[in-house]
Automatic annotation (TrEMBL):
Chain residues that bind heme: C492
Organism placement in taxonomy: Eukaryota, Viridiplantae, Streptophyta, Embryophyta, Tracheophyta
Official protein name in the record: Cytochrome P450
Matches recorded under Pfam families: p450
Segments forming a coiled coil: none
Organism per entry: Citrus clementina
UniProt keyword annotation of Heme present: yes
Length: 549
């Protein structure tokens, strides 16, 4: 064959190849687009049956949301269209809000995933976590191990941690008192941080020389995390973002530093004491958060597996510290503010603590199980100021059919407007927006109603001496409208532990100090979203007055 012919053949062949490639690309793109269009039609078809405000704009209800907050829009929509309403957040993004407690409970137990963007703040700051990921499959195993650790051995240990936290805290308060006023926010952040540090790292945490820098770094990162996570495309071009990333890297180094210190000491203790069972607090917590414990990581054959196993507990530790720190600080700050503004309740809790103290030695730790008003105050504070305005869920793969007959298409963002539900008169009575911890106490023998609603007993005068009183504490989780820790398959795994920890912390604190509002400080601060969580703002200024025993 002549070279001209060969060239022609080759050219034809190349043309044929290019054409085939273009056709295949065109067919693939068309199929993907068709799939998207079918999905969109399906979504629109199912969504038609869900009530909601009319929407004529291509951008859905976004123009409405530019003038009002989402909570306000949902409050009005639920009023008008019932307990399940839809909003379009864009041409293809459907949001369904549920306000009726029984339906919420059903939805929260059936929808196991969280919307894909959930946990973005965690991911940007600390990397992928197996605790705060979107799909249930990724978090299921780790949730079980962490929950077993928190609600088992650590719950017992939790009764001892706070005495040390209070000592550490009091040192800090004395320092701050010397310099001026104390803000609820500052104290609550420190209380939360010490409680979580002691939970995860054990007593080692109090002896760690870098604990103060670690706390400051967490506060700075917490302040910026929501801002950087709010960008839909990671803002690599911003200098501030890289500064933020450097802080996150520093935090990671410090976390690894305390982890190594804990591991060194674990070895030291088990090396010195042959009777020691080798399962020190930190080792067990590390296993719960990473599944690696050192053992799994070392037996792993692949170097990448080894690295991954070493990284996982570190990321999870930072994730738990971050979530626990923000939420616990919010709740502790709220309790401090409520106690400072409700001196009568504070005094009754003090009597409760003194009663529980009777017969115990100075160093003995009293159990908070009998401090019903203290526990009720924690529940009521959590009810009035949940961690955030919404619980979010999603069923990524399957449509969700509720007993009421509503079908919610896969991929829809499901929300529970938690503030509206927790302050709804139908579930909580006419004083739903008031601080009344007595609503969680009822006379012995008195039952909750069928929905689990705890009616307001509200009789403050009757509740004086916990031993003589005939009150019992209602389990708040029996009420489907009590959702500060969420509910169902993705509920908070720290609820029991953190409630017990905060109660023990306040029992020690109130035994020694009276909390007072500084003259001129704000008496009615408003819940405002700040750094991803609700906080009472402006933050009240408080005082700790030492009690004369
Ligand atoms: C006052 C303190 C706390 C509050 C108010 C709180 C609240 C919440 C809420 C509302 C959720 C979402 C639940 C849902 O969507 O149904 C959640 C999730 C979670 N919480 Fe907490 N939390 C607190 C403390 C803690 C602590 C101390 C820990 C662990 C030590 C913890 C571990 C978790 C985990 C692992 C999740 C993720 C569950 C998942 O996505 O599967 N929380 N928390």
């Amino acid at each position: 064959m002549s070279s001209a012919k060969l060239e022609l053949r080759l050219r034809e062949y190349a043309e044929w190849e290019i054409n085939a490639f273009l056709w295949i690309s065109l067919i693939t793109v068309t199929l993907v687009l068709l799939q998207k269009v079918v999905k969109l039609f399906r979504l629109r078809h199912h969504a038609r049956k869900i009530p909601g405000p009319p929407c004529s704009s291509f951008y859905g209800h976004c123009p409405l949301l530019s003038t009002q907050s989402l909570t306000e829009v949902l409050a009005e929509s639920h009023e008008k269209y019932g307990s399940v309403v839809k909003l379009w957040l864009g041409p293809t993004k459907l949001l369904v809000s549920i306000k009726e407690p029984a339906l919420i409970k059903e939805m929260l137990s059936k929808a196991e995933d969280k919307p894909p963007l959930t946990g973005r703040a965690f991911r940007l700051a600390f990397g992928q976590s197996s605790l705060f990921a979107s799909t249930f499959d990724r978090v299921e195993k780790r949730r079980v191990t962490l929950s077993t650790e928190l609600n088992g051995r650590l719950l017992e240990r939790g009764k001892v941690i706070p005495a040390r936290v209070v000592d550490c805290l009091m040192e800090r308060i004395r320092d701050i008192l010397g310099k001026g006023n104390i803000s609820c926010k500052m104290i609550s952040q420190h209380m939360a941080f010490s409680l979580l540090g002691a939970t995860i790292f054990g007593d080692e945490f109090f002896a760690w020389s870098k604990a103060t820098v670690y706390e400051e770094l967490f506060m700075t990162i917490a302040k910026d995390a929501c801002f950087w996570a709010s960008y839909s495309v990671t803002p690599f071009w911003k200098r501030g973002f890289w500064r933020y990333q450097r802080l996150c890297e520093k935090l990671k180094c410090l976390t690894q530093d305390i982890i190594q210190q804990c591991q060194r000491n674990c070895k030291l203790i088990s090396g010195m004491d042959h009777n020691f069972d080798n399962e020190t607090a930190y080792k067990r917590m590390e296993a719960a958060l990473g599944g690696s414990s050192s053992f799994d990581a070392l037996v792993s054959q692949e170097p990448s597996g080894y690295l991954q196993a070493r990284e996982e507990p570190c990321r999870n530790i930072m994730g738990v510290m971050f979530h626990g720190y923000l939420t616990t600080a919010g709740l502790v700050g709220n309790i401090l503010a409520r106690l400072a503004t409700h001196q009568d309740i504070q005094e009754k809790i003090y009597s409760e603590i003194i009663m529980a103290r009777k017969g115990l030695g100075e160093k003995d730790q009293q159990s908070v199980d009998n401090m019903l008003l203290l526990l009720a105050t924690i529940y009521e504070s959590a009810r009035l100021l949940p961690a955030g305005p919404f619980l979010q869920r999603c069923s990524l793969k399957h449509d969700l059919t509720l007993k009421s007959g509503v079908t919610i298409p896969a991929g829809t963002v499901l929300v529970v407007p938690i503030q509206l539900v927790q302050m709804d008169n139908c579930s909580w009575g006419i004083d739903a927006s008031q601080f009344n911890p007595y609503r969680f106490l009822s006379k012995k023998g008195r039952q909750c109603d069928q929905l689990g609603n705890i009616s307001s007993t509200g009789n403050a005068e009757e509740y004086v001496d916990p031993r003589q009183s005939s009150f019992v504490l209602n389990d708040p989780n029996n009420n489907a409208a009590f959702l500060p820790f969420g509910s169902g398959s993705r509920a908070c795994v720290g609820q029991k532990y953190v409630t017990q920890g905060i109660a023990t912390l306040f029992a020690s604190l109130l035994e020694r100090y009276e909390i007072r509002l500084q003259p001129g400080s704000e008496k009615n601060p408003k819940p405002t979203v700040n750094n991803c969580v609700f906080q009472l703002l402006p933050c009240p200024e408080i005082d700790f007055v030492e009690r004369v025993s």
